[in-house]
Amino acid sequence: MAKRLTTNNLTDQQRQYLRRPAFTVLGLTERKILGIILRGDVVTQAAVTRGMDVSQQTVSRLTSALVDMGLVEVAEKVSEGKRGKPSVVLNLSASAMYSVGFTIMMDTVSFAAMDFSGSVVFESQASLPTMLPRMVLDTCHSMFSEFLRSANTNHEQILGIGVAVTGYFVRGQPGFNTPPGLAEWAFVDIEETFNQEFDLPVWAENDGNAAAIGESMIGVGRWANSFAYIYLSSGLGGGVVIDGELVRGDIGNAGEFSGILPYSVHTHPTLELLRQISCRDGIELENIHELIEKFDPDWPSVDEWIHKTQTAFSIIASAASAVLDCTAVVLGGRMPRTLAEKLIPHIEFFSAPRRSFPRPTPRVVPAEAKGEVTAIGAATLPLRAMYFS
């Protein structure tokens, strides 16, 4: 069956490769239907209609077209506790296609593959001695080939590739301004580089934005339409999702929460800082990858790290609450969930009550998207761009 794509906001490279016979244009209303099905647990056609601004007849017609395209499957009918006929249950067709994502970090390359239902079907990670481009790209090829073999699939079933890179955007420059450990990747045209390597359309984002998009699709975004995503790794960054859409800002750097904290005043919370404190205490951790693998929330260094960073986290959370009025502040990135859970009770919102009513504040929660979150977020980029709204 042909899958229809939207051509809005595509680069020439993406348009070229999405002219493959398997894909055609998909409308915004159809994408909204798919988004409702993706985020729900048991989604009926009646539930889709309630979430749309179009008639039941239109939803029925478009849903039937999505079934014909092989994107949606109809399951058994269920009663919603009301009079009338039972409503059909709608599921995304997992086997319709795959999307894959890579993350290039200071010491690690991660890979994730996702089917059309939003389920992660393959993950891989490699800690490398150097992040030189050729070594990184060869590692990416190995991971991609291993996935194709394990899934018994080929390029024709791959919608596209998402790539997340540690760094920020600079006006007028390609790629990202990467940290010193990724100096060879500074201002490299990531989309063109990976397109040449894999002969597939490519979407690139910084790691904080990619993780926030993934969280919006398969994590906290299932119940929180607006949230601030704090991305913790070797550095501190993040992303902002409002009304279900990533807020990119003028250049693409919205959500760079490290910019809120003056270096001379507040300790910047990073996993590298936790690694250094732990090493001082005699725990041998060569890099952040090893820190995550060995992490124990009962290390004394964890309590010291929380003591040093809780004010910084409180400032970021309070700023997100005051400026964004969001539903949630999400602690994610490479932060172990048990670390987030131990930190949350120490985060304070700076808001004095008025007339005995405090200003409403968001929930602070660990990220809910499981696995290699940034690679998973990268894998959602083609799906989000093309199919889900």
Number of helical segments with 4 or more residues: 12
Helix content: 25-40%
Strand/helix succession: EHEHEHHEEEEEHEHEHEEEHHHEHEH
Strand order of the largest sheet: 8-7-6-9-10
Q: Ends: how far apart? A: 21 Å
* Largest sheet composition: 5 strands, mixed
Brief sketch in words of this structure:
36% of the residues lie in helices and 21% in strands. The protein contains 12 helices and 15 strands.
Which terms would index this structure?
single chain, 389 residues, alpha/beta, 5-stranded mixed sheet, 12 helices, 15 strands, 21% strand, globular
Would you write up a description of this structure?
The chain contains twelve helices and 15 strands. With 389 residues, the protein is of the alpha/beta class. It has a five-stranded mixed beta sheet with strand order 8-7-6-9-10. It is globular. Residues 1-6 have low confidence and may be disordered.
Topology:
Layout: E1 3-4, H1 12-17, E2 23-24, H2 28-39, E3 43-44, H3 45-50, H4 56-68, E4 72-78, E5 87-92, E6 98-104, E7 108-115, E8 120-127, H5 133-151, E9 158-165, H6 190-198, E10 202-206, H7 207-218, E11 227-232, E12 236-242, E13 245-247, H8 271-280, H9 288-294, H10 300-324, E14 328-333, H11 337-343, E15 363-366, H12 373-386
Parallel strand pairs: 1-2, 6-9, 9-10, 11-14, 14-15
Antiparallel strand pairs: 3-5, 4-5, 6-7, 7-8, 11-12, 12-13
Helix pairs in contact: 7-12, 8-10
